[in-house]
Amino acid sequence: MNNSSGNRSGSPMTRAVDRVYSHIREAIVAGTYAPGARLGEVELAEITDTSRTPVREALRQLEMEGLVEVLPHKGARVYQWTADDLDEIYDLRMTLEAMAAARAASRIDDKDVDRLSELCDLMETAARDGAAQQLDLMAQLNDEFHAIVRTAAASTRLMSMLGAVIQLPLVMRTFHRYAPVDLARSHAHHRDLVAALRAGDETWADSVMRAHVRAAKHVLLQSLTADDSKD
What is the pTM of this model? Predict the structure, then answer.
C-alpha cells in the first residue's frame, strides 16, 4: 500500500506514526533494511526521535502491507520472501491489476491516457542502455504509470487489495534484474496498454495487463533461481 498515511494531518501521535512508517518503508525499498533484517523498537524510536508506541503502530501497518513480519517473543524483521511467496503474490497481482485495467478502460479520461503515453516515452529514455541508463527513475515512472491505471479503475476496494501486492517490485528492485529484451517487452506492453485504454477496450486492457505481470513474474523468479545457483 502506498503511504496514504503520509498525507494525513492530525494528532502528534498520528504524525509520529507517519514519520516512523515513512522511515522504515523508505529504508526497506532502498535496501538499507535488507530482507530478514531485525527491526528493533528501541533503535527505531531513537532514530526517528519518538517513543516505542508509534514504532509499534508503524510496524503493525507495515506488517499488514506484507513488508514486515512480527514474530511472537522475537520482535519484528523485514519480510523475507520465498519463491513460493513471490509466485503467489504475482498471481494475485496479475488478477487484480488486470481487473483494474479492464475497469479503467471504460473510465479513464483523455488527459490521463495522454500522461500514460508521455510516461512511456520517459521510461524508454530512462531505460536506454549505456552510462545514462536510469533504472531507478524508470521504476518511479513505472509506479506512476500503474498508479494512474489503478486510480482510473475507481474502486476503493480494489485499490486496498492491490496495496498488499504492489510493494514487492519496488523492494526487489526488479528492473535491475531485467535484460535488454525484458525491458523492451515491458515497454511494448505499456504501449499496448495505452492503446487498449485509448480504445476503451476492457478485454484488450485485461489481456495486456495479464501478460505484462506474468512476464515480470517470470523475470523475477528466473533471476532468483540464478542467484541461488551462485550460492
Answer: 0.76
